[in-house]
Amino acid sequence: MGAKISAIVIFDIDGVIRDVSGSYRRAIADTVEAFTEGAYRPSQDDIDRLKSEGCWNNDWHASQELVYRYFEQCGQARGDRPLDYDALVAFFQSRYRGTDPNTMNGYICQEPLLVSNGYFDRLTDAGMSWGFFSGAMRAEAAYILEGALKLKQPVVVAMEDAPSKPDPTGLFDAIARIEERHNCHNNAPVIYVGDTVADLYTVGKAQQERPQRTWVGVGVLPPHVHHNLERQAAYSENLKNAGAAIVLDNVEQLTPEVIGEIVD
């Protein structure tokens, strides 16, 4: 008989654990601007509108889509504007990860943390297990989790490990790894914490596929909407409409006590 845990909490990384408004999102804007030959640079609102559709979790795909949509608004069909996807990805990565093949020297180096190391200790002390499911690449996730936060071998399912959200495969995988690591198989309730519509859709799909388990989606407002009350309200409403049980300003507001209330 393995250990019994009261809840499993899985976190998205971007916009929840680290502030990516000046990194991933800046790289999207740079990429779209470059591939529209300087004609269009998307704003944070433009990126939010795209991501609110719930199917653009991959920022390379999001960048490509914004380029295509710009040219469509100019009256050009997608087929008339061939786009070198590999070149687009390489450009994006040169901005986000940087240009040095041996070390990170891009925008990723400037990402503020949105959580403290001690937060995860508090979850553990309360009998809760935790891990991460993110669209970030493994090396980029490790840079923030093991590098900046100093977490010791956290359970992480990254871009290379699973289909893009809202497919719940990666969420299921993260849970299975946690249960195996802790030898706990009591079908504990699962909370997935994210900042996008796709994150919340992932929880809904998990519920559909495995209804015997309790699934709770928790939304977190990303830092780039905090400065404007109207944007906060609209963003929060989008997350709630996508299935969030609650929407928080910061992930550390999801205390063990709050977790106990929402899975009760």
Structure overview:
This protein has about 260 residues and is α/β, with parallel strands linked by helices. The protein is about 45% helix and about 10% strand. It is built from ten helices and six strands. It has helices at about 25-35, 45-50, 60-75, 85-95, 115-125, 140-150, 170-180, 195-210, 230-240, 255-260; strands at about 5-10, 130-135, 155, 190-195, 215-220, 245-250. Strands 3-2-1-4-5-6 form a six-stranded parallel beta sheet, with helices on both faces. The longest helix has 15 residues, at about 60-75. The mean pLDDT is about 95.
Brief digest:
The protein has ten helices and six strands, in the order βαααααβαβαβαβαβα.
Brief descriptors of the model:
single chain, 264 residues, alpha/beta, six-stranded parallel β-sheet, globular
Structural class: alpha/beta
**Unreliable runs:** none
Roughly what fraction of the amino acids lie in strands? 5-15%
Rg value: 19 Å
**What's the total number of strands?**
6
Count of DSSP H/I helices: 10
Mean of residue pLDDT?
A: 95
**Envelope shape:** globular
Distance between the termini: 24 Å
Q: Helix-strand pattern, N to C?
A: EHHHHHEHEHEHEHEH
Helix content: 40-55%
Strand order of the largest sheet: 3-2-1-4-5-6
* Largest β-sheet summary: 6 strands, parallel
Protein topology:
Layout: E1 7-11, H1 24-35, H2 44-51, H3 59-73, H4 85-96, H5 117-125, E2 128-133, H6 138-148, E3 156-157, H7 169-182, E4 190-194, H8 197-209, E5 215-220, H9 229-241, E6 244-248, H10 256-262
Helix pairs in contact: 1-3, 1-4
